[in-house]
Structures are given as C-alpha cells and as structure tokens.
C-alpha cells in the first residue's frame, strides 16, 4: 500500500466511522473512543509479576499500572499454550471450533498454513471502524499473504511471523548468515530469521525486547498525529525461551541464585522497562488518560524454563490453573477506578466483544463469539458471566485434559485414566480439595456442559508435528465418549432415541 | 420481525411472485397456486392407520382423506430414523450427502450444531415464492439462530426444536420447574422444556397433540386472511415415545389389551382428531378444494413402543421395508381424483421438486435434488421414476445396512456379515423370497448403483453420541469396500487402471 | 448455449480483452497473442518418441516439431498417474492440495464427484481473456454439470468424460448396444459409451485417434474464422490401454516382434499422424507461425502395456523418474528458436502461469499457483527455478513414495520401509548412484522441503476404489511422521516448543 492510498484509505475509514457513529460534524471532529493497547507476555507465570506478589521478580512499571487499574485474579488465556491461545484471542472463539487446537507445524516456514480468513479478527473490525492498528512483536498465526498481519487487520506490523525469536541481534544475525551461506535457505530455524516491517526485512540493533518497546513508542507517536483512536497489540516474545537476558537486567536480581530464574527475571525486567516507555509516551502525547491498557500472558509459566505459577498447580500446557490462569490487569484512567481487584472470571475471549463495544461497532456478520463484553461488569466490579462456563481442553496422547469453570467452581479432568474432580478454585486456587463427592450434581452439570461444548469442535486442521496427526488418527481421537463419561452418574433422558 | 416489516415483506414477496409468474394485473389478483399441507407423524407404523387396514386402530379422518385422494403403498421416508429423515425431506437430498446421517447429538441443546445453511430447504423456496409458511410441532434440525425454523423458511413456528416432547403440560411443566429450581439450567432434558412461538416461550394448556392441532387451525385461519397461498408443515411428535395418551382417547380402544399398544392407539387417535380439525378449518375458510394435503410418517413404527408395520418386516431404523416404507396419501380435491391407489415408488425426497412445481418456481441455484417431481405421474397414476433407484443406508457398529429399490425390486443388505439379497417388494412386501440367485445381473446392477451413490456421501458432521464417533473412526468406517462387495460377480472393466 | 448468445458472448469477451489490453482501436483489431495448443499423450513412455531416440518407434511429425522447437529433457507431469496429473495441469496446483491425489472412483459414472469448482482452471482464465477454447478427447476430471468441460473453460468439447476409451467404433458401439439391451443402463463400462459434442451424443466413424485428430483440425479451422486467438487442448487417450491399433499402423513396425509393443507402436504412430494433420491445418490457415504447441505425456509409460521409459528407472505410478518424467517439447516458430534442448526442470504445473503470461492476463484472484512462468527462461534457455523444488508423491498401502527435485538433484523415497536416497538425476537419470552419504545436508534440506510441502496437503476427497479409503483410514494415513523421518539427522530447533 503506498502512502497516498493509505491516507485516502484512512480518510474513508474515518468517514465510515463517523457515519457509523451518527456524527454530523466534520469527519475530523474529535473521536472520543479510547485507544486500546494489549500488552501480551509470552509464557509469563502467574507469580512472575510484582502485582501478583512475586517473591523474587520486580516489575515496577507493571505494578503501578495494576495498582492504578483493576487487577484480575481469575483471568484465563483462551488456551494453555501459545498458537491456539493467540488464535482464540484474535478470533474471539475457542480455537477448537475452527480446527486450530494445535500450534502450526514446526516446519511450516513457507508451508502456507494459517488461521482461516473466515475467522475474522477483532483487529480487522477495529480497523474497519477507523482505528489505526498496529502489531509489534510475535504473530504465530500464519505467514502466507492471506494470514499475514497486514491482511488481518493491522495497518502496521513490526516483528516476526513465527512462534518465537532469539534476542541478541549480533548473535542471531550471525547464525542466520552462516546458515544462509551453507545454502539452507528457508529451512533455517525461524528463531534466527530477520524481523520485518510490513513485509520488508529490517535490521534490529537492540536487545529484542527493547527493540519492540522502541517500536511501540514510535507507533504511539505516529498514532498521535492522526485524529483516529489506535489499537496497539504489543506482543512480546519475552520471557519465552531461549533464555537470553542482558547482564544489566540480570544484575537487578542479585538475590536470585538459580541460573535460569535469574535470566528469566532479567527478561521480565526488560519487558517491564518497555511498559514504562509505553506509558511515558502515552503521557507525553496526551493519550494516557483515554487509553485502555490490557496486560496479560498467553498461557502459564514453565518452571523448567524459569517461570513460577505459585500458588497455582501445574504449568503451561495444563488444564490445571497454572496452565492457563494468567496475570492480568486493565488500566484506563478515564474510566477505571484504581486500586481494585476483580475476582471474577475474565477470558482472553472476552476482549473481542469488549473492544468492539468500546469502539462502538457491532459485529455485522452473525459471528458467534465465545466471550462476553466484560467492560460494564468490570466497571461495576460484578461477575460478567454468572452461571456461564468457560472451557479449556488440551489433547494429549490418546486422551484429553479438560477444564470447565463456572462461577467459583471448576470441573477438571487431568491425566491419562484420570477421574473428574471438582474444585472451588476461587477459594482453593491450588486445586487441593476435590469436592466431587460433595457436589456431584454440579460436577455432572459442568461435565455435561463440557460435552455440549465439545460437539462444536472441528477436526484439527494441522498438528504441531506429523506424529501427532498419526497418533490422533491411530488412536481414533478425540474419544470424547471416554472424556465425558462420569461413572455412576445417571443421564436424564439418555435412553430415549428419536 | 415487527408487524410492519412483516406486511411489507409479504407485499414484496407477492410482487416478486407475480413477476415470477408473469402476472400483469394487480399484485393482489387471485393466486391459483394450491396451498400445501404436510402432515407428518412420528414413528407411525405402516399398519397403524385405518386406510392401511389396521386391525385395531381407527383413524376415521385420515381414512376419509385417503379415500378421497390417492393412497401410496410404496412410499418411503428419506431415512429410517428421525433426524436424517427430516433433513432429507426439507433439503430434498439424501442426508448422507451433507453429513447428516446421524441424529444431532443428544446433548446438543445449546450445542450449536444443525443442518448447514447451504442445504436450502423447500420451505425457503416456497417462502421466497410468496407462500405464507408455517411449522407447527417438532423440528429436530438445529437450534441456533442460523438453523432455527424462522431462518429456514418459516414465517411462523410454534413448537419445539428438539427431537421429541412430553405430552401433558401439567406434568412436563412441573418437572421442568423442579429441575430448573435445582439449577440444572440448560442440561434439563429437552422433552420437558417449554414450547415456543417464533422464539418466544409459550404456555401449553392442552394435551400436546391437541395443542398442535389447534395451532394448525389458527395458522390456516390466519393464512386465509392473506391472498397468498400457504404452506403448513404440521409436524406431530405423536405417536413417538413417551407413551402418553388421554383416558378418553384410550377408551376408544376397549378391544386392545396390550398396555403400550392401547396408549399408542390413543395417541394416534388424537392425531387423527387433529387432522379432522384441519380439514374442518379448510372447509370453513373455503380452502379445502385447492389445498394439497400430504400425509406420511418420518420412518417405520417401533413395535416395542406400540407400533405395527405389518405386513412389512423390520422396524424403525432398519433398511427392511418396515424401517422406512410408510403410510402416505396425497389429497387435493381440485386436482386429484379420489379412490386411487398409487403402487409406485414415492420418496419423501420427491416433495421438494413436486412442491416447487406446484408453486411454479424453479430452483434458481444449481441445487441437485435427489427426488423427482411426482405430481404429473401421480395425476396420471404412472411410475414417476421407471428404471431409477432410491436408496437407504443406515450405519451400524462397523458395517452398514443398505437398501436399493428400483421399480418392483429391492437389493437388501441387512445385518453384520450379511449377504446381498434381492426381493420383489412390490409383490412380496414382506421380503420373504430372496431372488438373488434368479436375477444376479439385476442384483449386481442395483448394488453397483448403491456403490456409485455411496461415493457421494460426506463424512458425518456429528454422531448421536460421542461413542458412535469413536467407533466410526476406530473401525475405519465407512468400509464401503465390504458393503458393496458381491462375491463371485465379475465387474466389467474393473481391472483397468488409468 | 445457442448460437446467438455464443456470438454475443464472444464479442463481449473480445471487448473485455481489449479493455484488459488497453487497446483503443476497434474491438476487432488484430490480437497478437499466440494461439496455444496442448497435445497430451496418455501413458506415453519417455523413450517412445523419435525425438527421444526411441529404438523402434517412429514419430516423424512430432520429431519435426521437436527439432524446430525446444526439446525438454527434464519435463515432469504433475503426478505419476492420470487423474491427478490432469487435475494438476488444469488447476496449476499439486492435486494433493485440493484432495485430488487419487483417480476419481471407477464407479463414478453418474457419481457426481469431480475437481471442485474453487480450483479455477487456466482454460477458464484463457476463455475469460477472449480466447476461443476447445477440448478434444479425454477429460477425466468429473462428469456432472459443474465439472463438465463446457463449464470449466471450454467453448467446445468433443470427446469423453471418463478415463479412457476403446478405439474401434464398430466394436465399442456394438458392445455398448448389447449391454444397453441387457438393461445395464449407466453401469455399462464407460470405455464403451458414446462420445459427445458439448453434451450431445455423437457417432464416431473412424478409429478413435483419427477421429480426435479430425476434430482438432476442424476446431482450428473454426477458430481461424474468429479474430480471437484460440486454445486447443488435444487430449489423446492413445496409447493408453486397451491396446488397439489398425493393421496399417502396425504394419509400419515390421521389426517389432512383441505383440503388445507392436500394437502400442501403431497407436503412437496414429497419434503422430494426427499431429501432422494439426500442423498442416495450422499452415493452411496461416496460424502456424504464431501458435505455441506444447506436447507431452500425462505420466510415464507402462511396460506391461507396451511402453518404454529407457533410460529411466520405473514406470507410470512411480516417483522414480520413469513414473513422471515425460517427453516434452515447445514449438513456436515466431518466438522459439529451433534445434534447442532445454535441460532444466519444466513441470506441467508451469503451463498455467506461462499461458496466462502469453495471454497477457493476470490471475485476479489470489490463487497461489505451484508452477512458474517458464516462458522467459525457455526463450533464454535458463533454469526457470534455480534453488526451487518440485515434488511428487504417490500414496501406497500404508506408506507413500516421494520425490523432491531441485536443480540437478532429487531426493527419493521409494518402496515400503525404504530409506531416503539422493540422485543427481541430471547426470544420472537412471538413478543408479545414491549420493545420500555424500550430500547429507542437501538431502536433509530436500526432505525438509518435502515435509513442509506435505503440510499443505488436504485429506483425499475420494479414492479410486472403496478399499483404498478403508486402508487409508485403517492404517492411519498419511503417516508423514514416518515418510519424512531421516535417521540420525539432527533437526535444528526441533526441540523448541511454543
């Protein structure tokens, strides 16, 4: 898109938005819709931020925002690991419903797979509604033109298309060039490849997290020059492996002895510094008051790679709380009263309808979203979905782990040949007391809801590695007749046939 | 839809229809296209109506219509059980071709599955052609907005979306309220849930069959006030289980000693009474002469639940005649001469093209229908499809039962490890004399046609219960190489490869 | 389509083309885009033409064209057997990507399966660009209206829809009529059925190859009367079985003693005679200079049916060179200098983009083609795809044969439990020296490319026979985790999870 077209396009979008809003003045009249920033950390554990009382990691900038905003203690990612979690976030639907239960294949670099275009992203809806939209950082939802951020709702994209990246440019550039010289072409490990800006290769000069933060501030400055509100998706790959931090950042944590944890802490600290720069830029450009910042992680932390999910059980990938309950806050000076803790369920799936509501657009197509607009409930500190469940499911080798959470309770199936358990995860976040014997009817109802949900799943469109696909077929997955069987619980009406 | 819009919409439809018909007078000029009523019974056996010589059940109103119309003795449902039978009826195509070979999942109450919108229903085509359309009773083709009768061609819907219902409102309301009080929410057995009118819950005050009949008469009266022809789909759930009849109706059958049969008989009697009310209303409103009534059952009767398919072998679910050959008549005073018996094949799949022909619309899209317009053949009492086959297939645990009927003959595969048999079901409806040795070439040809047909099947989009899906995959279904193998019969050209 | 409409349509197309071309004069101004003729042989072996030094078969007319044009020595069909090869040719994409890896079912005569309409054919693009388009001969891509040549880009179709045909009309007519008299209807072996012209049955009076040649000359004469360029797809079924040649043609090969080879040679000779007639007609109508003729075979020869692929290993169906490397030449007096040999890779997949370039149209839709426009490279005798691979894969019983060719090298997996091998097929076309030990990194890279390619495959939409479908499911195909495993080769980055 050349610049002329871009400007024209922007004017048209503004006009469209003004029509949508019923504005009768100039198309350049002030637009009071808030800016929206999503800051997503990668594999950040529940206990790895100051505002969640980390015993060893400090995140001063995040903490200030959390303190001045509302901190969510029961926030959930859309999935317990990366690709599907992001697919769910952007599409506003459980990734299982559109065959995206698995990460894209490792060897997909030019493989042409990605989230189907039928699954509209909220970025596209915000863009259509006149927002200036940008993605900085990690994508992981497909690389071919049709899946590329620039064709999926982002005016600006600076980052990398795959699932992760090395952090030190002097290092990854060198390895990339060596492999290229060996003629490896597209089979070079993608964590080493150059970053891009709207499809054009760029040269990174800083530690990657700092580079992304710098780009984010530049995006905000650029957005300031327009009269449009903006949406920024600042998608850090930190503190995802590879574990690589600067000496300076690690030096902030002299009390940490464990080598991995020390690097991890340094990585988080760099991310936090970036958040500080973002806030600074918002203030400098006068956009601080009317910008909603939503911070969270794409899934739980991974202890062997430095993360800590205490007091939650489990880790990234699990349907235990540690797998997909994540640190989160909403910060918006103009509307959200600070110093609050929001104890009710928030799902990453809720961001789609919530942002649409803020942008004053209705999803025109009859797209059935799985989340709810949580903004009114958050502003009132009420449960946004009383009596409504959220779900998690991760397929394993021949079986599936499942979680169904409703209000304070959670039905859990975890592990091969496991039995269904029930926890009051509001009061017992560590999932230590199984209440299945105490509330069998509730458990049965939750499991039944999970089964109903499972009927809406589509066959996986891909697997992370070919072996998983073979196993899926050989073991006649998804075997939901086993997943959702509860011994000894009578099913009302089950014997009727039609 | 508010009323104003509805009226506008109706006028537009009338105008569209007049353009379609090439009418040059007022758009309110008389429309001589017939009204169409489909009265569908649920699980009604071949021998359970007077006009098919039931030894114990009387159906005086149905019998009069059958007598004054044409009685079909070889009429077939589109499938041997409910959901697929109705899907085939509405879509005019074998349900196997669009992945709807199974009933929707039991636990689908809010599950969001249903017959894909790409499968246009004839109700939509009639509606588009200016017909005023109504569904009274059972749906069973999906509940979400996109699958709902009001979005699938019906201006009016009064009934229930699922596969069946209890009959006594005082009883089902009580049980529903009790379960609701227990907090069961949407997991309440759907046979107990309130009925609805165009999406709004209604309170039923009569025995359900009578309620549906009353609603049908009201629809006809309402339709009378328009100048449009109407299409009414009166979709009784009777005499499907649960077996519940009024004492008065059962008292009509003092000679029946078997408890179940007695209730069943009472249920059929109530249905018959409703048919009488419908006819009465047609006469009263002057629409009797130009209304085509098609009566039939969605599949064969179920003897353990009171049904009787004599002299046919087998029952609901089977590819034996008792599974899907059903009682049927066409009644239309203005065009159809009474007192006739039509011995040729009629399939529920034929209704789509036949009704379109009566409504003088051509299916614009290149929708390939599986039935034929049988109206001219019925009026002439000729075979509507000489030399053309109809098919039935029901998947079982690791194999499939199949029927292929052409003219007088039927190839049958029934039972695990069964061999193909051939019957002259015209002269031997009880399928007692296997003619496979006598007419091996004919059998081979029929089986070959079945195989060709099977290549057009789609993978099932759902299963009734998860276990069926697991079995399907584990047993590598559909295993059609076994289904369509005939030992010792040479296949011309089979060895050529391309 | 009636004639009036056809003429109007043609004028509209010409106008559209002129707009497209930016022409500002009369719509009937000269169009200097070349005519295009594809002459496709069926199962013709690499060594079965004079220009590839056949020791026993003479093809004087083909040889003259090859001599005056450019002869390709590394030309590949899109697949190693018929249906998918043609699907790939027409769609410009590997048939695996749209579920067409198998031939259409044998018993599909009225089965309604075919290549999905979403897969645009280049014939449609040429037609839309104002070309007069014709198919003479074999189709094999579906029979129902939506798949029929006349709905897939061909103004004219004279031939048969299935995968092959008998050659002597007096013989096939007789057998057809006999079977029809037996009431076999549509189960009559399709090799015997009447040919058609745009949907209407025609009576063939000559040996089939001659008939097709005659029709081709008539098409060219008809095209000459228009001002449009034309595209002719002359799709001979010769020398595919059944082995049937005229005595006169066989008499040309007194030196051949083997019965089958003699018939086969006669069949090829008849085809060559047809090519001569085509050239004659081009000359006579003054279109010889500006017509591009591309000649090739849809896959390798089948020695048990008379073919010879020397010096290549393997035969039709194999991923060995003999399976899909085929004789090919491009002939175009106006642009291509004669007497050349082109040693670089050309794939049948390249024809789509190459022809589009010649017709000066851009594929409007974002259709991702798998081939490249080879015209500039051929005119310059340069490698059209340096460093880019082409692929072949054939599924067998529980495993897959694969070939990945890039530049001079080819990675090969052939046979059950085989190991990956590497050949320099430019210098060692017989695949005699395995270089896998010598160039392990190259082999690994090729295999990795194959794996990436495999992720883009779709589940087969059909199988040639039902048994293949059962095997596919029972053996949990495609088992690509086995296909693309190379023992002992480390995968960079393989252990990272996201």
UniProtKB/TrEMBL annotation, chains A, B, C:
Query: Where does the signal peptide begin and end?
Result: 1-29
Supply the alphabetized keyword list: Calcium, Hydrolase, Metal-binding, Signal
- Kindly indicate whether the keyword rRNA processing belongs to this entry: no
Q: Which stretches make up the Sulfatase N-terminal domain?
A: 34-360
Which InterPro entries does this one have?
Alkaline_phosphatase_core_sf (IPR017850), Sulfatase (IPR050738), Sulfatase_CS (IPR024607), Sulfatase_N (IPR000917)
Q: Record keywords: Signal included?
A: yes
Task: Please give the superkingdom of this protein's source.
Answer: Bacteria
Q: Which family does it belong to?
A: Belongs to the sulfatase family.
The name this protein goes by in its record: Sulfatase-like hydrolase/transferase
